[in-house]
Amino acid sequence: MIWTGPPSLRGVGRFVETRRLLSLVLIGALVWSVASVGWGDGVIHTGGSDALKAFILGLFPPEISPDFLKVVVAATWQTLVHAVAAITLAIVVGLPLGIVASGALGSPGRARLAVAGTFRFGLAVMRSIHELVWAMLFVTAFGLSSIAVVLAIAIPYAGILGRIYSELLNDVPDAPLAGLRSSGASPARVLLYGRIPMVFTDILGYTFYRFECALRAAAIMSFVGIRGLGFEIQMSLHDLRFNEVWTLLLVLVGLVLLVDYWSGRVRRNIQS
Amino acid sequence: MISAGHLVDGQGLGKAFGEQRALAPLDLKIASGERVALAGPSGSGKSTLLYILAGLVSPDCGQLFLNSLAVSQLRPGRELSEAVGLIQQQFDLVPQLPVVQNVLAGRLGQWGLFRSLASLFSPRERGLALEALSRLGIDDKIDQRTGQLSGGEQQRVAIARLMIQSPRVVLADEPVSSLDPAQAEEILKLLIKLADDVAGVFVASLHAPGLIREYFTRVIGLRQGVLQFDIPADELTSSVLDALYDLDRTA
Asked: FRET partner for B95 with CA separation of 20 to 30 A, picked from A113, A145, A193, A202?
């Protein structure tokens, strides 16, 4: 008879073995996938290293001729408008959906949980389709237009914001909520006076982050053919005008940095 | 059977959390004007009983009537908030809100939803809050973020909220446990006055026998969820209390 260890530890031993086996399998897969790349010829395609060099040199200096800058400003404005419209719509839709999905409203009971669960499911469906796929669907329906871009970003983003809002609203400490209830507050008033104030800064911070993402998404969208930063990047790249590409990239980076700075300022103001 | 005279009428109130029995079925009748102390070691069920009396936790068995109203039928709102209010041991305020909002939360049982929302932006009845806070000596903190106040100041904000709410049954969970004797007496006097002003009832959990004998009319001892004694406060002796807390003074 083989002694497999004291009875209480046998289950643990099996669990540990499974985890070790899994780690080995994953490491093996990583090693194999890296090794199966044909390092040597063909990783960088012919002429690629020259193009790469030319691209890097394009940064010095970036294109700043007035004619081109006019194009840049128009494209930036277009992207900004799309992003702002999309995130606004996402907030307007996502916040109420997130509140219901959190189960914070309604009298305690099975009905409320069922409703909350349904809304959680709806939010998950909204975000399961990537914005580019939504864009392709809407372009088919509405043609190349701003509506297509804005809706394509707003829908999954409403799903994302709604999910995060609902989790934030749910994860608050209970003692202050019990204090409000003891004063006679209904679930709606507990939400207004307790949950929302406690998570307001977090909601603000995450929403700003999503706005940054919306900027990137709007820039990418314009590859689909609606004018914007992505469209211009693609045009300039196609013509191998790397100086122009760099100008556009710097503007995109600048936009994101600006939003980040703005977000930081707002959060500091709130907290003081 | 509703007892016409008693403000608090609990029959067979019991509660278990999972397998843990927090409170064995207990009868409790309190008439207006009484001041009841709850004594007992931690885990004895004092907080559970207070939460049941406040309507925050439903008992597993038994019925509770406050002011002749069946608590199980009451939803949060005017009737419940006028009947009973509770101060928890700590941190039942919303730290991010300014003090004035935490105090005015005492009116949430009375205000409609729209009024509650509007008041968040422009506090209605600010004068009421100011008056309560100045009676407690902290009116200068009215616009400060509640989380920035000290523990003692936050307790006064909670008392101010209770003053605004003005319930007939005033409950307090260990209100003086972390206070020095002088502060303890001051807080007890404030809370008792709250109850007396509305011909109500005051129930608080605390340990100090001196305070119990001086400020309360009745003392209930709990141990591991079971009622040990329910006697007039002046009959409380050290040996009774020692037995409750299982203190071996002979060692």
From this structure: A113
User: Are B120 and A193 within 8 A, CB to CB?
Assistant: yes
CA distance B198 to B32: 9
Best mutation target, B51, B67, B92, B93, to test chain A (most A CBs within 10 A): B92
- When pLDDT is averaged across residues A14-40 and rounded to a whole number, the result is 86
Q: How far apart are CA A257 and CA A217, in angstroms?
A: 16
Of A184, A197, A198, the CB nearest to B81: A184
pLDDT confidence bin for B3, thresholds 50/70/90:
very low
What ipTM score was computed for the predicted complex, to two decimals?
A: 0.87
Residue B80: its chain A contacts at CB < 8 A? 184
| Contact residues, chain A, for B165 at CB < 8 Å | 183-184
Q: Higher confidence at residue B219 or residue A227? A: B219
Which homologous superfamily is B1-67+168-251 in? P-loop containing nucleotide triphosphate hydrolases (3.40.50.300)
| Cβ atoms within 10 Å of A10's Cβ, excluding its own | 11
pTM of the model: 0.82
In the DSSP assignment, the letter for residue A3 is -
The whole-angstrom separation of Cα B219 and Cα B35 is 8
CB contacts of A176 in chain B (<8 Å) are 91-95
Residue type, B73: Q
AA letter at A15: F
Phi and psi angles of residue A40, each rounded to the nearest 5 degrees, phi first: 125, -125
Closest CB from A176, A187, A189 relative to B116: A189
Closest to A176 (Cβ–Cβ): which among B86, B93, B110? B93
- Domain range summary for chain A, segments of one domain joined by +: 64-271
Domain A64-271: top CATH class: mainly alpha
Q: Tell me the pLDDT of chain B averaged across its residues.
A: 88
In chain A, positions 70-109, which contact chain B (CB-CB < 8 Å)?
107
Residue-range domain boundaries for chain B:
1-67+168-251, 92-165
Token match 């040199």: residue? A57
pLDDT tens string A110-155: 788 888 999 999 999 999 999 889 988 888 888 888 888 999 999 9
> Is A204 an 8 Å CB contact of chain B?
no
- Average pLDDT of span A13-42: 84
Question: Minimal Cα–Cα distance from B248 to chain A, Å?
Answer: 35
**B54, B56, B94 member nearest A194 (Cβ):** B94
State the smallest CA–CA distance between residue B185 and chain A in angstroms. Answer: 23
Pairing label, strands B20-31, B201-205: unpaired
Q: Which of A48-62, A110-124, B222-236 has the lowest mean pLDDT?
A: A48-62
Give me the pLDDT at residue A42, please.
60
